[in-house]
Amino acid sequence: MLSLPPLSALRCFEAAARHLSFKLAADELCISPTAVSHQIRNLESHLGCTLFIRHTRAVTLTAAGQTLAQSAQQAFSQLSNAVQTIQHAANQVTVATTHAFASLWLVPKLLEFQQRYPDIRVKLCADDKLNDLALDTSLDCIIRYGSFDATSKSTLLTREKIGLFATPAVVAQINTTGQLKVYTTQWKNPQLPVWPAEELLAAQFGARWQLYYFSDEQQAVQAALHDQGLFFGSELLVAGYITQGWLSAVTVCPLQLGFAYSLLTRKNYTSTAVETFQLWLQQQFQTSDDSAT
């Protein structure tokens, strides 16, 4: 590396060799043709050979110039690609979360984020498995759901609230319906805590209910939205439907069961884009919590 000539001289040479013109190279680099000529003469002096044959109105490469031009063009191309890759990564946030949280809560809110931060791209990786930042280096952060450990390195976003939700039409018939159909989720991830759905429903309706399990909250929510029964699950995931008036809370106060949503980011690396997304995410939850109080 110590034997390399100045980068500015190599840059001038690469541009001149590509255009076969000192003037066009000067226009590209926003300097004078004289400055380009001076840089190339210094480069030739450093190398101890001639790189261009000067004609009256043109230049051509010598054999040494052709060899250097090929390597210089490849090197600058690789540098340009590396810089673009780094810049792209710096402006992208790759987030892993569950299918239900991504579809029912995060995706509907991303338009507001994109309008506020148009230069930052959010890439979602929806998966119900337990992701690990140490094992998957493509992820920048993970939004997790489950029991929250206050001693962990994750950031608490909000405590979960569980309740019963249904369309206004179903709510109006609850007291006159013989057997209530209730739809909920049976977790794919065995590490997630189990909701005491049967005990809670028995306390609310006695024996007047039938519980149906889906593998994903989206399916259970869709059943409720189509007047098929009640959805038993996360208030957060149906908050948008409640705001629209499509669903209503059947329980007066959603049941506190100790579940939480938390955010996990890399310990030793972060970027402005990741920090911006984290702050925005926390603000979204803060706004939701404030409106609920």
Automatic annotation (TrEMBL):
The keyword NADP does not apply. Residues 5-62 form the HTH lysR-type domain. Keywords: DNA-binding, Transcription, Transcription regulation. InterPro entries: LysR-type_TF_proteobact-type, LysR_HTH_N, LysR_subst-bd, WH-like_DNA-bd_sf, WH_DNA-bd_sf. The keyword DNA-binding applies. Belongs to the LysR transcriptional regulatory family. This is LysR family transcriptional regulator. It comes from Pseudoalteromonas fenneropenaei.
